[in-house]
Each structure stands twice: as structure tokens, then as C-alpha cells.
Automatic annotation (TrEMBL):
It comes from the Bacteria. Keywords: Signal. Residues 1-25 form the signal peptide. This is Uncharacterized protein. It comes from Adhaeribacter arboris.
Amino acid sequence: MKRFLIKSNYFFTLLGVIISSQAFSQVATNDSAYLATRINNLISQYDQAIGDQKILFNGKEYLTYDKYYLKGHQFFRSGEEQEGDVYYDGYLFTNVPLLYDVLLDQIVISEPNGSLLFKLENKKVNYFKVHDHTFIRLAADTLSESPVKTGFYDLLVDGKTKLLAKRVKRVYEDATIRGMEGEFITEDRFFIRKNDQYYPVSKKKAVLKILTDNKKELQKYSRNQHLKFKKETREYALVKLIQYYNNLPPGKSP
């Protein structure tokens, strides 16, 4: 089921027009009952238009915590709201202006009139999409030794073997002779999911150890594609390698 987020400016603008115009005519007609009816009807139209979207604004208020001296921001890709999709509390909401606070692992949305920011309840989010990336929520099993902790993970490759990224940011602050300085630092972590098990990976060697059934083919492909696993190109290389692996016929484990 889809719900489309709409802008409420029209309703509030129209409400203002009705109030001002009717207030003027009230001097002559003193028809306060008529004015109240018009306002109630407009509010009812607004509630009907929003419909199930009201459940998005039941969370706690989001208060920004960045400081003037910090470089960068705490959000994924951009500090400006971007339209995305959210599967929340059993409903799919599309074209929702949102932010993903990576530091807090928190989805942030603004109310229809844009005056307040709210935090969605993480446990009610199945997945969300923003910046052409799909984030799924994983709940860690507290009894297992899985390297995956509860939170949102960027599903980079879907298929028989999956590649996920845990987007991580931390704040670095330092007191200098020029005053306080600092920045938001990104530290992405990558995981392969194979046979319902999660494995942390960063180097080609770790990938080949997990995908041993097609090790030779993957080594050859990596050389031909000149894949590099340095920090700057690690994500690209991992995506290419896992995508290639998923398209290979089943190999034999050594």
C-alpha cells in the first residue's frame, strides 16, 4: 500500500484566507458559527488528505546537535532533505522528504508545515530508500556472535550473496590555540551475507576466503578489472566482485 506525502501549505494558506476574510465580514454579520464551521471543514479536509501519514509524526522531536566549528555534517550524503521512501509501521510512504542521521542511526523527517523535525521509531522501520540507496533494518540476535549489530544497513548488492554497508560517522573535536575545531568523520564497514551468516570484509583476501567455491574466477576477474581495495575504492571493488560472484554458476568448495 502506498501513501503519498503532500505539502500542507495550501491548506494553511487557505485557512488563513478564510479566517481573515470571515473575520472582516463578522463585523457586519457576526456569523461566528459560520466561520467555525468553515474552519472545521477545512481541518477535516486536511486530515483526510494526510490520512495515514499522521503516524509518521508521532515520534520524538529531533534537535540538531552540530556545532558551528564542526566541518561536514552527520547525515548520509547530504545535509539537505531528499525525497525518499519509508516502509513504516506496515505502510509504504513514498516521496517523503527525509534525512538519515548516520551518527545516531536515525531517520529524520519534517512535519508538513516544516517547522519541526521528528525522529521515526527505528523498530517500526522495515526499510527506507534515499539517494538511490536502500537501507534495511537488521535486528541482531543477542545470543549469537554475529558481527552485525542492530541498526540500518545499506544493501549494496542483493542476491544469493549479499553485500551490506554499515554507514558510520563519529565526531572528532580538538581544542587548539585558535579555538575549538572538529569534523564529522566517516568510517564505513562492509559485510557479506552468505548462507545466512554475516562476515566483515575489507580486503580482497577476506572476500576470497568467504567465496572459496569460485576463488579462481574471482581472482581472474579482479585482475582484469583492476579492482583496488583501498579505502577510496573499496566499496566499488566489493560491489563489482559480489555482483560478478552472484552471476557465476555454483562452484565447488575446496
